[in-house]
């Protein structure tokens, strides 16, 4: 959700604030944070210095990298035109629901039929302990495409393992392929952008998101 929101504080005053982060769940997140701060400053004198303006400034300045974030990957693709990739570290069921809901709303804003073939291309990786069958079931619609990739080994965390991309494909039951690496997945996906894909999404693992950020450095 990006826009104005409001709520009632403990003193019954009306508190209005701007939410800069995407996703309808941000309203609940920010309302919870504001309520907690409001309770603290009403029960602990040392927190009374936190004014409404401080709270508003904190919310307005909030950033959440890798969460419903649009990123220009033209540098990676060596393209002269802007190429927007939707990046989300969604790696559990609740996050997958939020991501799919956001994608559907973006498709509606584009005036595209959600049921049209290959609306969305998913670039996906996941750690082995995740229930990828249920996550993919929430994310993928008929006509979508999936590129299954590996993320790189996590330094200092040898116990973190990526699902074999073939296992991901076996769970997807849609038009999908194993791609050698993230760079190649991006190139193949954007080669068909606009003709087949309306939105290209990278998701499934924060480690995969980290790989992308390293490529952009």
From TrEMBL:
What does UniProt give as GO cellular component? cytosol; mitochondrion
Q: Which UniProt keywords apply?
A: ATP-binding, Ligase, Magnesium, Metal-binding, Nucleotide-binding
Provide a Gene Ontology MF annotation, just one.
tetrahydrofolylpolyglutamate synthase activity
Recorded hits in Gene3D superfamilies, A to Z, give:
Mur ligase, C-terminal domain (3.90.190.20)
InterPro entries (alphabetical):
Folylpolyglutamate_synth (IPR001645), Mur-like_cat_sf (IPR036565), Mur_ligase_C_dom_sf (IPR036615)
Q: Which family does it belong to?
A: Belongs to the folylpolyglutamate synthase family.
| Name of the protein in question | FolC bifunctional protein
Lineage from the top down? Eukaryota, Fungi, Fungi incertae sedis, Mucoromycota, Glomeromycotina
